[in-house]
Amino acid sequence: MLMTEMRTHTCNELNAGYIGKEVILCGWVQAIRNLGGMTFIDLRDRYGITQLAFNSETQSELCETAKEFGREWVLQAAGTVAERYSKNKNIPTGDVEIIVSKIHVLSQSEIPPFTIEDESDGGDELRMKYRYLDLRRNPVKKNMLFRHQIAFEIRNYMNNIGFVEIETPFLIKSTPEGARDFVVPSRVNPGEFYALPQSPQTFKQLLMLSGYDRYFQIVKCFRDEDLRTDRQPEFTQIDCEMSFVTQEDVLNTFEGLVKHIFQKVKNIEIPDIERMTYADAMKLYGSDKPDTRFDMRFVELNDRLQHKDFSVFNQAELVIGIVAKDCGNYSRKQLDELVDFVKRPQVGAGGLVYVLCQPDGNYKSSVDKFYDQNDLRKVAEKCHAEEGDLILIMSGKTEKTRSQLSSLRLELGRRLGLQKSGEYKLLWVVDFPLLEWDEETERFYAKHHPFTAPKPEHEALLLTAPREVNANAYDLVINGSEIGGGSIRIHNSAMQQKMFNVLGFSDEEAQKQFGFLLNAFKYGAPPHGGIAFGLDRLCAVLSDLDSIRDFIAFPKNNAARDTMIDSPATISEEQLKELGIEIKN
Ligand code: ASP
């Protein structure tokens, strides 16, 4: 019940129990229907729709006025709740209507540029330009309310287990690691710039040092990256950090949070989350975020296929295959489609070898010239392929081949309907490598970020065999989407300094960029670790939608623009001057 001076009820509240009551409703005109002697208006607010009725004989003046209203006008209607003649079973208020006695136009509306319906006639661009109208539509509203519910449940749960929400600054300092920063010029310090945080990482670590023990924040983060459907320049993290914890503690704590969210917003009890090492994820799925709703694991076939004259396989570092169940009857055209798929520039493979396990027990392959039935049987055995199945094989450099077969695996998952909506497979991927070698710049980068600690038993390898060093770093993956990631951190100044050195920073550079942290660690830093989840992506995954944009009230488009407010935009000469910025054309 939502009673104010202006309205007594919402547009979703009234039912047969209210018949005869005097009420006042406020809302937007969804539709007007003139039917013989009656005019009906569907009045809509956030909560629902109620029918207003005007009788042309008994209320001729009101009726004439009502006929003049247009879609999306804002009305205040007073009247009596009455039983409806033709009931609408699809809405909670469908048994009643309001016989209007007084109507007040609160606001008129121009004809909206698209229909405010579940299925709108407006295209993407138009709806983004008029996002405030798009937000009136049910599917969009549903997403906003869903997001609110998740955020609310998170705050509730975190508060109950002793986490405090602390805000960290948005105007911080640009740092060389990670993605590109958004920068903000400082007027009072001409020629100097703030950067918007890519995450509150160092601040949350400092809060641990300050003794806050358990911190979280639902916080905007900013990354100047190329956009994709699951990326936005500003997005929201559920950012968390804890002191005096091991990896096990962190995983257990946040497994609790994730279970709570699923239970509250989806009414799903999820079982304990499985764990897989990074090495296994790469070996079995070719990805550090495998979609485990379906199996189709990689099988290594070097030992079965490198003994004949097929030079492509013989020269390859890795030969791997997957089994597409019951696809052994694929036609030439279907097989060609898969070959074309892997040859697309986005996948970038040279080709694909197939083996059809035919119902008569014979094998037919694209490499029959090189391999006889016995060879192919051995391949099928190793892959556990049965009659009626299709084996798809790729080869080449290990990493590249795994990633290419991973793309094919996901494509098959899509084609075969194995990524079922409404089914959720969660996975902790653990034991990430600490570092990643970049061929182009010929240096190591932190796989997670430079504050992640090496596993204690690997510390000694940091300078001698950096590639071998693993970290207590972990990602949460849901249905093939990376939903969160975190690690146990370095909490010792010397070790942090060493890490910067491995990443190619001189002592001076490290001091200049991260001196505050190196210094802070000298004043009693507790062991700590944490994690951050992507709220936008979590909402999307839980709703079986691909785009995080659907869960952001005012998102940017693919060109990083907000077309509604027309931003980014130029600023005046005067502002530029004030900021000490000169633009050269
Ligand atoms: N700050 C990290 C990130 O944004 C998450 C973490 O390590 O807690 O990915």
Terminal Cα span: 59 Å
Number of strands: 22
Beta-strand fraction estimate: 15-25%
Which CATH class of the largest domain?
Alpha Beta
Tally of domains: 3
Strand count, sense and barrel status of the largest sheet are: 8 strands, mixed
Summed over residues and divided by their number, the pLDDT gives a mean of: 95
- Any guess at the CATH architecture of the largest domain? 2-Layer Sandwich
Structural class estimated from helices and strands: alpha+beta
Any ligands, ions or cofactors bound here, and which?
Answer: aspartic acid
Strands side by side in the biggest sheet? 6-9-10-22-21-20-17-11
Low-confidence stretches: none
Please state the overall shape, judged from the principal axes of the Cα atoms.
globular
CATH superfamily of the largest domain: Bira Bifunctional Protein, Domain 2
- The CATH topology name of the largest domain reads BirA Bifunctional Protein, domain 2
Radius of gyration: 30 Å
Characterise this structure:
The protein is of the alpha+beta class and 585 residues long. It folds into three domains: 16-107, Nucleic acid-binding proteins (OB fold (Dihydrolipoamide Acetyltransferase, E2P)); 141-276 and 427-551, BirA Bifunctional Protein, domain 2 (2-Layer Sandwich); 294-418, 2-Layer Sandwich (Gyrase A, domain 2), CATH 3.30.1360.30. It has 17 helices and 22 strands. The protein has an eight-stranded mixed beta sheet with strand order 6-9-10-22-21-20-17-11, with helices on both faces. The protein has a five-stranded mixed beta barrel with strand order 1-2-3-5-4. Strands 12-13-16-14-15 form a five-stranded antiparallel beta sheet. Helix 4 packs across helix 6 and helix 14 (493-502) runs antiparallel to helix 15 (507-520). The radius of gyration is 30 Å and the shape is globular. 34% of the residues are buried. The model has no long low-confidence stretch (mean pLDDT 95). Residues 199, 201, 485-487, 530-532 line the site of aspartic acid.
